[in-house]
Amino acid sequence: MTEKTILVTGGAGFIGSNFVLNWINQEGSPVINLDKLTYAGNLGNLSSLKNDKRHIFVKGDINDRTLVQELLTRHRPWAIVNFAAESHVDRSIHGPEDFIQTNVNGTFHLLQETRAYLETLEGEEKNVFRFLHISTDEVYGSLGPDDAPFTESSPYTPNSPYSASKAASDHLVRAFHHTYGLYTLTSNCSNNYGPYQFPEKLVPLIILNALNWKPLPVYGDGLNVRDWLYVQDHCEALRIVLAQGKSGEVYNIGGGNERKNIDVVQTICSLLDELRPVSGQKYASLISFIKDRPGHDRRYAIDARKIGHQLRWKPEETFETGIRKTVQWYLDNMEWVKSITSGDYQRWLEKNYGNRGTA
Q1: What is the mean pLDDT of residues 175-183?
Q2: Can you tell me the distance from the alpha carbon of 57 to that of 34, in angstroms, rounded to the nearest whole number?
Q3: What are the pLDDT digits (tens) for 110-119?
Q4: Which of 166, 234, 309, 353 has the fewest CB atoms within 10 Å, i.e. is most exposed?
Q5: Which residues are registered as beta bridge partners of 229?
Q6: Catalytic residue chosen out of the listed positions 138, 227, 236, 297
Q7: What DSSP string runs through 319-331?
Q8: CA distance 77 to 96
Q9: Domains in the chain, please, with CATH?
Q10: Catalytic member of 35, 90, 137, 258
Q11: Collapsing DSSP states into helix, strand and coil, what is residue 165?
């Protein structure tokens, strides 16, 4: 532990890769990056670390307990940061089994190997070790328009296979803390956006469809509300939670930016009108309201006062500054976009949006 190595799972995905980049830039200590490289994992996100010895990438599954054991034994990390998850609600509706396998079984196996690893540690090494589990506000269910935002004590009422699988993983982490004394930390974040996000999620999907002059699909009436968190703000919060968080605690991380989906889409359209204008045309003309997805939660909102008061964190970006940075990043990184929007991605778009019809 002399080098303060950490093990990051799912570190080639959207939030995970941003965290790895942030960690090495801010902390400078080694990262073991374990990622299965499913469709949403992309080593191109980490191309700037290609020759950096502080970043050790290992392709593998958190369900592979032998591999996890070998990594823990060899590298002796002082912390595990668990991003590894299937995370797209629409995909969980089409195929929930992958979500149970990764989010529930994978977290369980990771916790089991962590327990075994801790038995090999003594003294200060054992005392400083911690397990940070990254989760979502979706485990809390749906809010009405006038309901107070979710707090860390809000009841769990997940409504999709994705959120149910994350809720189960959260409960496992809690149980391993209370039963086995594992130093666990859990964070439940709101909707992230920013660089390197796979374009199945709303923000990059709208940006890329607009640039290709394709319909901009909006579920239902477009009035579903989400709290939006710029990914770099999230990464900063996670570094603080890992360093200062109290064992067994949950920290809600939100951007304080509630927006209706249709407002998010219209904001992106306005930015593109400014940054990439099309003569005589407005991107908003491409907006297409489509049949809503099953079990679509109406509103999420995060009360982030706990992390603000106890750990002195607050987001740096407003939605307006963060979304401008995000749109500009995609405009500046079209080669990255081309590398991930393969035939498989196009087939997914057709499967999920092709036969929905209008709202």
Answers
A1: 98
A2: 6
A3: 999 999 999 9
A4: 309
A5: 192
A6: 138
A7: HHHHHHHHHHHHH
A8: 32
A9: 6-193+229-256+298-317 (3.40.50.720)
A10: 137
A11: helix
